[in-house]
Amino acid sequence: MELFLKQEKIAFIFITITFLLNLFLWFFVYLNYKNLKEITIIHYSVLAGVDRLDKKIYLFEMPLVGLIILVVNFLLIVFLSKEKILNYFLIFSSFLSNLFLIISAILIFSL
């Protein structure tokens, strides 16, 4: 399925952008990590407000989850998927996941 990534430049571009988004998320969490109290907001919902306080180290779960999603979807594309539409769905879901994780991190660090 590596052929798919070589033939479809838009797929390769989206995977690259998603990787860069995840890299940005790692740096964003790392740079803002020092400014937080030891116990900080880990999860916030619009309906309930702050609903999880924990050690600030757990904020690194966000970029880790984004990276896992990206790697798993990439491996599915390379080794299992033969359907072009499914490949695009996997790529776009990785992109959206990392984008939403960045938005979440920005909101959590702004509280």
Q: Work out the helicity level.
A: 55-70%
Main sheet: strand order: 1-2
| Count of domains | 1
Task: List segments where confidence is low: pLDDT < 50 over at least 5 consecutive residues.
Answer: none
What does this structure look like?
This protein is an alpha+beta fold and 111 residues long. The chain has one domain (2-110). Helix content is 69%, strand content 13%. It has four helices and two strands. The protein has helices at residues 2-7, 9-33, 61-79, 84-110, and strands at 39-45, 49-55. A two-stranded antiparallel ribbon has the order 1-2. A hairpin with a 3-residue loop joins strand 1 (39-45) and strand 2 (49-55). Helix 2 runs parallel beside helix 4 (84-110). The model has no long low-confidence stretch (mean pLDDT 85).
